[in-house]
Structure formats: structure tokens, C-alpha cells
Write a structure and sequence with these properties.
With about 425 residues, this protein is an alpha/beta fold. The chain is built from 16 helices and 9 strands.
């Protein structure tokens, strides 16, 4: 297989010489060309474009000066303009040149990786997957402009789908009040749930997973901290309203066994998938989500938790740069799979140093780009975690501190800790 096409490069340069205005439509750079002479010619063409000069052989020869002999002389430029008289395939020819360039750079990257093989096979796999994703992102056809009529027709389809299925608006959160603030977790968004340890992040995530499953969505859970059996214990306890210790110890009363049987049949009918392998790289997660999305278009992804995801390669800027890379990759994953991504995140100990211990943006541990990438950021806060005398016993505050498409505010829920269950205040009182 050839990694370059001299004739295609000649066709692009010849087309510009014939129709000077094509240079303003070009998406190439000099490095995309394989032939050094073609790189030199195109570089001069770009400079002429910047100065809004008409590109023709005479002016191009003047710019090249003595270097014109290195590319074959005036005769070669004349051949370019006469040998390829058709310009209607300009965009297709540019696409071929770009793809050939990606093939060359990809092979060079593989050779470099081979010469610097990491000792860890997981790191090697992550590097290869990262390289593949990078090339794949560049190969994808650019969207370009769409007429507003096309977008409006899509909008009508989405609205009708929303009315019929109730899914297009996004994934339901576990709380009615929280839904009102966030507007639900919408497709193509990255949503961060952050709290200090032991506040209830994982339980909150699992409650939301079940809520989405009950709506008919497919739920993908990546648990980098806890094994699957622990997640199942907690999901069953919350769904069946059985004390968690009884589930773990296997000491169920007759009434609890009935609840257990009914709850299990309900959970088993949901499209919930769990991946509990520790040390997952962001490349592995993106690959797994892409495969699942092909089979299940109405997908929501939940991750416990962000700071445990490996970047899959070395980062000169240290841990903060790695977390930032993971954060931006999760945002890309949400966009490319048209699904909401919910990632748990740890908060720094800075919370403990303040009198008011409600979290703030600056408390996001190893924040990197998290604040920038996230569409929503929700902090979980329990006053009884810090104040034994509080009147808000078993009340958890869901503080929506950032909401790119809606309002911010606080929704209060009841944390039924014996079950690991979160319910609306109205539900508890009823």
C-alpha cells in the first residue's frame, strides 16, 4: 500500500494554479504533502493567500526565486497547470492527501513507540489505543455548515421522540428537585458528582443508575474502586429497602427474602452493565463505551471515579495534566457517543479547613480541566457528617454549582443510610 500519491498532490497544486480562489477553500498545510517540492510550492501559495495575492505562475516563480530550480523549474509549474485541467475533484483530492499523510505519521508514531517500548503491557496497549483514537479523530469527516431548515427538522423529530418516549431530554436523576435544577442529564454532556469520602457518592451514583434503568435506558457502570459484588449488594439493598448489613451477612428475615426476590427480578430486567476492572485507562473506557453504544443507542455512562482513571501515557506536567487529559477525553466520549457521562470525583481536604464546609469549585482535587470540561458540577454535602447537633439529620444537599444549560441551586434529599437509598423529601414524609 502506498503512503503517498504524487499525482494527487500535483492535481491539487494544478487546480489552484488554474483557479486561484481554491486556495481559500483548502484545508491542507505544507506538511500534508509528501513531495518536498510540493511542500515548498504550497507554502508559497499559503503566503500569497495571506496577502490576498492572486496565485499564478509568474508571481509564484518570483516568490520561489532560485528555489524554483529545486522543484523542477518553470516548466514543471506549467505542466501542473496544464496536465490537470479539471478542478471539480479538488475536495476529494485534498481528502486523499490528508489520509495519506495520516498513514505516514501513524507509521512513524508506531516505529517510535516500538523503539521506546514501555515495560508495562497495559501502558503499551493504552499508547496504541491513544494513537488509534488520535488518527481516527482526524480521519472523521468534518461536519461543515448545515442549513437551519435541516436543524429545525431534526428538532421536530427530537421533540416528537421526547413526547413519545421521554428519553430525548436526557437521563433522569434520582431526585425530582434535582431534575428541575439540572434539566436532567442531557446527551453529549459531562456531569461531575463530587464529595468528600464517606458522604455517599457511590450510593448516589447507583441510585441514579437504577433510576435511568427504570426509564429504559442502557446503563454502563465503570467501577474502578469497588468490585461488582459490592455494587450489587448496595443496589439490592437500596432497591429492596433491606438493611445493607443483612445483605452482606446473608441474614434475611422471611419478609426480607420476599423483598429480595421481587427486587432481584426488577433489577435483572434492566439493561445495566458493570465493568469493575481496576486501573482502567481512558482509552479502554472509550473503546468499551463505543462498542456498547453500537448495540444500545440510549446509553448513559457512570464512572466511579474520575481520579482513578489512568491517562495511559506519560505526562510531562504531572498528575494535574493527566487528570485534565482524562477530563477532556470524557467530554469527547460524551460527544462522540451522543450520551450523558456522569463521573464521580474526589474533593481535596481544603473543605475541612473552612468553617462552612460546603464544597466549592476550588475543592475539586487535582482539578486540571474538570471545571472547564464539565457541563454540570454537583456537590454532595451532609451537615450531619460534620455537625452532630444539626437539625438536618440524614439530609443530603445536592449543590448544583455549575450548569452550562440551566440554573444552579441546591436540592435536598433524604439519605436513608441503612439502605443506601436516596429519596425526595416529599416521599420520605409521605
Amino acid at each position: 500500500m502506498s503512503f503517498h500519491s504524487i499525482e494527487t498532490e500535483q492535481a491539487v497544486l494544478g487546480s489552484i494554479l488554474i483557479e486561484s480562489e481554491l486556495i481559500y477553500e483548502s484545508v491542507l498545510t505544507p506538511e500534508h504533502f509528501y513531495h518536498e517540492g510540493h511542500q515548498l510550492i504550497f507554502e508559497q501559495m499559503m503566503q500569497m493567500r495571506e496577502k490576498q495575492e492572486k496565485i499564478e505562475i509568474v508571481s509564484l516563480v518570483a516568490r520561489l526565486g532560485a528555489a524554483v530550480q529545486d522543484i523542477g523549474g518553470v516548466q514543471y509549474l506549467s505542466q501542473l497547470s496544464t496536465s490537470f485541467p479539471m478542478t471539480d475533484q479538488f475536495a476529494n483530492h485534498e481528502q486523499i492527501i490528508k489520509e495519506k499523510y495520516l498513514m505516514r505519521t501513524g507509521m512513524l508514531a508506531i516505529k517510535k513507540l516500538y523503539s521506546e517500548l514501555p515495560d508495562n503491557p497495559r501502558e503499551l496497549a493504552a499508547e496504541l489505543m491513544s494513537l488509534a483514537e488520535s488518527i481516527g479523530d482526524q480521519v472523521r469527516t468534518e461536519g461543515g455548515f448545515r442549513h437551519i431548515k435541516d436543524g429545525l427538522m431534526d428538532h421536530v423529530d427530537q421533540l416528537e421522540h421526547k413526547k413519545e418516549h421521554g428519553l430525548a431530554s436526557g437521563a433522569k436523576t434520582v431526585g425530582t428537585a434535582l431534575d428541575k435544577i439540572t434539566g436532567r442529564w442531557k446527551k453529549q454532556t459531562l456531569n461531575i458528582i463530587a464529595a468528600r469520602p464517606s458522604v455517599g457518592k457511590t450510593a448516589f451514583m447507583l441510585n441514579n443508575a437504577v433510576a435511568a434503568g427504570k426509564e429504559g435506558m442502557t446503563v454502563a457502570i465503570f467501577s474502578l474502586e469497588q468490585p461488582e459484588v459490592q455494587l450489587l449488594d448496595r443496589m439490592i439493598a437500596a432497591e429492596c429497602r433491606i438493611i445493607g448489613e443483612n445483605i452482606r451477612d446473608g441474614k434475611l428475615s422471611d419478609d426480607e427474602w420476599t423483598k429480595y426476590t421481587v427486587g432481584l427480578s426488577t433489577l435483572a430486567e434492566m439493561e445495566i452493565y458493570i465493568d469493575d476492572k481496576p486501573g482502567r485507562t481512558i482509552q479502554e473506557i472509550r473503546s468499551a463505551v463505543r462498542k456498547l453504544r453500537k448495540k444500545h443507542p440510549e446509553l448513559i455512562v457512570l464512572i466511579d471515579y474520575l481520579q482513578l482513571i489512568h491517562g495511559g501515557k506519560k505526562f510531562a506536567g504531572g498528575r494535574n495534566e493527566e487528570v485534565g487529559y482524562v477530563s477532556s477525553s470524557l467530554k469527547q466520549m460524551a460527544r462522540e457517543n451522543d450520551c450523558p457521562v456522569i463521573a464521580l470525583a474526589q474533593l481535596s481536604r481544603g473543605v475541612e479547613q473552612r468553617q462552612d464546609k460546603r464544597p466549592m469549585m476550588s475543592d475539586l482535587r487535582e482539578s486540571g480541566n474538570i471545571e472547564q470540561d464539565a457541563d454540570t458540577i454537583t456537590f454532595l454535602y451532609r451537615d450531619d457528617y460534620y455537625n452532630q447537633e444539626t437539625e438536618k439529620k440524614n439530609i443530603i444537599e445536592c449543590i448544583v454549582a455549575k450548569n452550562r444549560e440551566g440554573s444552579v441551586g441546591t436540592a435536598e434529599m433524604v439519605n436513608m443510610r441503612e439502605y443506601g437509598k436516596f429519596v425526595d423529601l416529599e416521599t420520605r414524609y409521605a
